[in-house]
## 1
Amino acid sequence: MLKVLVVDESSERADEICLSLVRAGYLVSAVLPNAMDLPRHVAAMSPDVILIDTESPSRDTLEHLSAINRANPRPVLLFSRERDAQIIRSALRAGVAAYVAETVAPERLGAVVEVALAQFEEHQNLRQERDEAARRLSERVTIERAKGLLMKARGLDEDAAYHALRRLAMERGRKLVEIAQGVVDGASLLM
Amino acid sequence: MTELNTPELNRRGFLKAGAAVSSAVAISSLLPFGGAWAGGSEGLEKTALKLGIIPLTDCAVIVVAKEKGFFKKHGLDVEVSKEASWANIRDKVSLGELDGAHMLAGMPLAATLGVGATQKDTITAFSMDLNGNGITVSNELYERMMAADPEAMKKRPTSAVALKKVIEEDKKAGKEPMTFAMVFPVSTHNYEIRYWMASAGIDPDKDVRLIVIPPPQMVANLQARNIVGYCVGEPWNQRAVEMGIGRSLITNYEIWNNNPEKVFGVNKEWADKHPNTHKALIRAMIEAAQWMDKLENRREVVKIISQKSYVNAPESVVENSMTGTWRYTKTEEVQLPDFNVFYRYAATFPWQSHAVWFLTQMVRWGQIEAPINFKKVAETVYRSDIYRDAAKDLGIAVPSIEMKPEGVNAARWMLEKASAPIQMGPDMFFDGMKFDPAKPIDYLKGFPVHAMKLDLAALAKANA
């Protein structure tokens, strides 16, 4: 059974990755990195594979561990075979880097990375959805504020204020929220 | 994307402007830097580029080339991407996720040789700076060094002789070796701290524990007593001094005057596909480096790179080293005007002799395990030919040789073997050793402390 160490700054994501790896039949352990602790964890577990967030600064510490000890997993990025190179490229884009012991056959690695990759992507999608929802909400707030300002300043009703904003946006070829932001910014100077 | 004569940036600018103009010549007149490609034959293969940096003061040339419009002037639309680790920089450049990046000088060599990484042909045709690092220890270790050998500690530059004595004391007391940190296995910092320790007879693989810590975490780990000292780039030495938790013992300028530090690295495949874009990048960075080396511009450099989106450190801390002041302690301050060199002394030129020096250190510390031909690797990776080709339109003086000896000039000197004479800086090693790039094996024989995994006779054969 392959031993996999997951190093991740996000404990939530680490949990998700570990769970899916366990379901796929791997022996898993996770650490939240402080670069200082990594050598100890790696020595204690002697993992076959280490998965780490590409955005973690602790990657350089792992690089050193694999450089000083042959028994430690080594960075794997470009495989000679096209299919694997593709997997690793998408892994890097999704934010996961892999370190693998020399004894692990590339075929066995592919599966581990695919599991992690799917989990990373799902996590990323969730985050994007959250970001998108937050963005929409803040846009709506801006538009509401601009409408309110127009209603007050020009004595328009809500519908007319909205249409005034929309007409200007269409004329200028800009987004409604940009025009609304302009109104809010302008008002803060004038009022 | 291949768009001869209509760089993407300019075309986009044109579409946005919405004007009914259809020829490239007319478009160029709308743009502030319309003359950039009007020079003619030079079609840029790609103009929208993503370059990686690590938040350190020596990423400055890339950041300044962007912020001060040098990239734009040369028709390039550059996005600067702040990366979390050197490993990430290397991998993203290898895979083409980044067009090019701020790299440790040894990284293109290591990637090309497959040292500590999957092999990928990587080159550099531009050196980003000279010097810029320091070695700092905790106050506690400093006190022990003072007590162990006050005479040695009075001398400047500070040697590791007193540290050796502290280590001997610890050994007698049966204590665990002390832990020091640096930033990456093939970093200049690793070779510098090892060089400094080994010159006093300390074996950096046996007498101490040497680990990698990301630069922004150095100060906190020193404070938490997880480590007793480190070798790192600025602002992380001056930060510890300012906070009163450490003493800076020596700068890398003192270890080796005007040593090479960072380079601009690209993968070879990218360079082959984008020769004109590569040269335009180099021209923009040469101009940025020229601008930055004017003393009156340094404060603006400090302002730009201290920003949150780049180094994210207090301006006062970045300013010290950038304007030539070094504080060993809060009270001991020296003027080191050459602590950060970006342009003068042919600092932007990729010397193949520097590549050979890094290769000797990789052999010395057991990172290179199979025989290599020093000269061949150096000329494959350090592409002075591309630099010269890029620089020729700028009308600047360029060295006409690829190699120079080190450890021979104690004062400024003139390099006559150049398109016009170039003033060069001192190049001494603090232990008085000399480096002849034509005789790397003899140089290696001069180091009593090493961790070589390579038979020197086999190495000599590969270099015959």
## 2
Amino acid sequence: MNPQTEIELAEAIAAAKGPLRIIGGGTRGIGNPVVGEAISTSELTGISLYEPGALTIVAQAGTSMAEIEAALDTENQRLAFEPMDHRTLLGTSGMPTIGGVVAANASGSRRIAVGACRDHLLGVRFVDGMGTAIKNGGRVMKNVTGYDLVKLLAGSYGTLGVLSEVSLKVLPKPETSATLKLHGLTDAQSVDALSMALGSPFEVTGAARSDDTLIRIEGFAASVAYRLAQLKDLLGSFGEMTAVTDPAASQVIWTDITNVTAFASTSGDIWRISIKPSDAPATIAALPSGTQTILDWGGGLIWAQTPAGIDLRATLPAVGHATLIRAAAKTRASLPAFQPENPILTALAQGIRAKFDPRGILNPGLMG
Amino acid sequence: MDMPLPDQSILSRKAEIVARLQSVLPKNAVIHAESEVRAYECDALSAYRCPPLCAVLPASTEEVAAALRVCHEMGVPVVPRGSGTSLAGGALPTADCVILGVARLNGVLETNYDDRYIRVQSGRTNLSVTGAVEAEDFFYAPDPSSQLACAIAGNIAMNSGGAHCLKYGVTTNNLLGVKMVLMDGTITDIGGAHLDAAGLDLLGLICGSEGQLGVVTEATLRILRKPEGARPVLMAFNDNEVAGACVADIIKAGVLPVAIEFMDRLCIETSEKYAQAGYPDCEALLIVEVEGSPAEIDEQLAVILAIARKHDPVELREAKSAEEAARIWLGRKSAFGAIGQISDYMCLDGTIPVSSLPMVLRRIGELSEEYGLRVGNVFHAGDGNMHPLICYDANKPGDLELCEAMGAEILKLCVDAGGCLTGEHGVGIEKRDLMTHQFAPQDLEIQMAIKDVFDPSWLLNPAKVFPLTSSASRRIAAE
């Protein structure tokens, strides 16, 4: 099904006789496998409003990220949460949509400084499991009118409703950016260095570890030069470091971190582990042998490429969770993609799903 | 402002209810004498008052759970209360309710600078969260005007903002986790020191739910390193619209100030008489603050001042010292108090797209003439969060009602301009009956359905947020 308007979308859902598999650009494929009739938002397209002076864009859910980015480019603005493009890591094709970004709360390296997609999402329109069109939030930056379903819908992977329109806060692009690379650090040293940088007043907008430990700063040229010098000074005890001051080269580094390019076309399972940054070294040490890792968010996000078919959740710290992002069908059939929560939260989530989707037809089982 | 009639069967059981609460709480934690419960009869929306049945002041999460279990079993409504600074009536009691105050829950449980968070009990005041970490040069970013008094519990309930949220966001953007007690006494953690949820973002749902879904007893909050410095610049214009255009141009230019504050003539003149900040004689005044090292501040201010000069300012005043910076902020920070000196006032909180600022200000001026009530405008211009202050005389019969009617018109205007009823104060009772102007029935229905999940018997702060007619069937069914 390819509804062309929100009304058609609502009619299609109201008339549905069984489970629906909801598709934006079809590039992410995260979650437990869903069996159902495909319903796509690909025909719900177009930017309905873009006000650069109000830092706001409103678009239909199926609008491609390419179209969104092109529009923002003309005003030298961007989505500051740096949405992850999953195509490289998952080997998918097609065109990511803004609705898919929101449904997955897809956020990249800059999340550590500016927040996630959910923090930039100002409003949503969606159709619930009964075919009712609902709006929440709006297009202004401060809005506490009623419950915040905007946050609830972000990262709900189409299980509460099918997004038809989203409004987002945008921000100006900085004049330039630079990346400081620290070489040859252990995981523990790396997290220490990232914590020190993030705990400094120098406005770090990326804090990651691939082969090198990586720290990004952005802003006006003189300010970036100043903060780069200050950070080199601050982190002097961590040894050898180099700076990438060409903004294009710096951008490539962070696109690769955000999109987890290093694990593209590899074998094994891909896990995304969300923890307290200082727990990262011990968490990594407890992962199965043969695991490769990339750290982002100062150590609070671990991308782990593990040998196939191993459930690593038992080894995680008490606070945090792991999401299985990529695995063979057999593993996905046996391990839940999303980590089960405590029984109280599970019951609340089930209660909420039952209100939004009483028939249980929207991506049933995708989140568990 | 209507409130539901108190449930007589609850009023008649007061002694029994108090006794049950006393059996699970320390003796001094249950306040029930008529003269003493009066202390809880209102919050900062003091035009509306009603003493509660009784008040409880638990000192631990377990005591909160015990009190809620009793109320749940006995079918008694509970109104949670932080510090009682709500401008929307969020903590306004009904005669048949138990006020659950979290003021005794004010400790710091954990500070972690490596992971940049603090865990506090929810009755702790906003400013004392920063107070707990500022020796290490850290701070908690959301800074509502009431930050000296307001509690984190209330900040979470209302998703409070502040002057600096243009850069740092509001409460929800700085909240990592909570410990919460449901109405039936169930205790659960939601979120924590890690950045995102394993499943649905229930934390995002809790924040801003106005104490209707649960009682938050602990919060894990993001703390940030203080910037090297900050400096404001004052810009005076002879036209509101020009000031509005200047705001839009600054935002578009790629500078991100931490604050852009706006004051109109009534506020400028009144605060000048009161605080003598030395503000120029003008129609509209902007205070723009930027942060960074001295050189970074110079660079950003140069960009901002160049933009301002294109808008024909009456005066541009850059703070050359900490003292001058304080004077620039003095008048703005005194504005509410200054207006309060000359008149009773109602403070509105509608938010509009920044582009609509000139139109909305003009229309507010017209409404002011129509109603014969003066309006001062002071607000966070960068994010379109307006705070029109409508002056009225509480001693003059009918003036409060006139003020309410005009307030309703202004808020509807904000919604019609593409904005919303409330940007940071919350709906409470104040904007409850205007919700149908912003939301269609199905938009409200799904929100009330969420309350059904967390609080099926509709006992937690039941007469707030939703129009009484919309929530009536649920509240009555629960009785």
